[in-house]
Amino acid sequence: xxxxxxxxxxxxxxxxxxxxxxxxxxxxxxxxxxxxxxxxxxxxxxxxxxxxxxxxxxxxxxxxxxxxxxxxxxxxxxxxxxxxxxxxxxxxxxxxxxxxxxxxxxxxxxxx
Amino acid sequence: xxxxxxxxxxxxxxxxxxxxxxxxxxxxxxxxxxxxxxxxxxxxxxxxxxxxxxxxxxxxxxxxxxxxxxxxxxxxxxxxxxxxxxxxxxxxxxxxxxxxxxxxxxxxxxxxx
Lengths: 112, 113
Known about the structure:
The complex is a heterodimer.
Chain A: E1 4-7, E2 10-13, E3 19-25, E4 31-38, E5 42-51, E6 54-57, E7 64-66, E8 76-78, E9 87-94, E10 102-103, E11 107-111
Parallel strand pairs in A: 2-11
Antiparallel strand pairs in A: 1-3, 3-8, 4-5, 4-9, 5-6, 7-8, 9-10, 9-11
Chain B: E1 5-7, E2 10-14, E3 19-24, E4 30-38, E5 45-50, E6 56-59, E7 62-67, E8 72-77, E9 86-94, E10 101-103, E11 107-112
Parallel strand pairs in B: 2-11
Antiparallel strand pairs in B: 1-3, 3-8, 4-5, 4-9, 6-7, 7-8, 9-10, 9-11
């Protein structure tokens, strides 16, 4: 029973590099979301999706792209990494936007 | 951007002490309030989802109350144990059509053996 799987667990990037953080869930959840967690800031919503083919911006979307081609996968793309994107990223899914989300184990990203 | 505040920011208690902390949220357009327990290096674990004014929920030694009219929720831990050490997050969901949980910054609890 995998739940929400995030890869990689750790990543170091140089400024300007691009990369994709992967998120997959096997619970057939419609709603998926990406958060970043910074010291003293709590969890802030980056992007979310209410179903395949539908995405929307959260509180802090700049510098990130998402797509939702399947129900299972919700990758987060950093187009040109900046040191301000150093953070821990959490993916979450739930069967609806109002239900309790299941969180992945996080990806710790450092941009130098 | 909705304002969800948690207090205190951090708390140290002795093993066996009972403790409580607060989550404040907008009192208008309320749909639900979530509480999470978050241990270092792990993902947040859901504790409660509260939707009704006056709701009280309990899970073992942890309980929570909700006042939607004044916009606050309390989380109580009875007889704190070292394994209760974690950050406790609340998250507010506004309106039935909203999909965005707004998280507070958390209360970090340390239980001293």
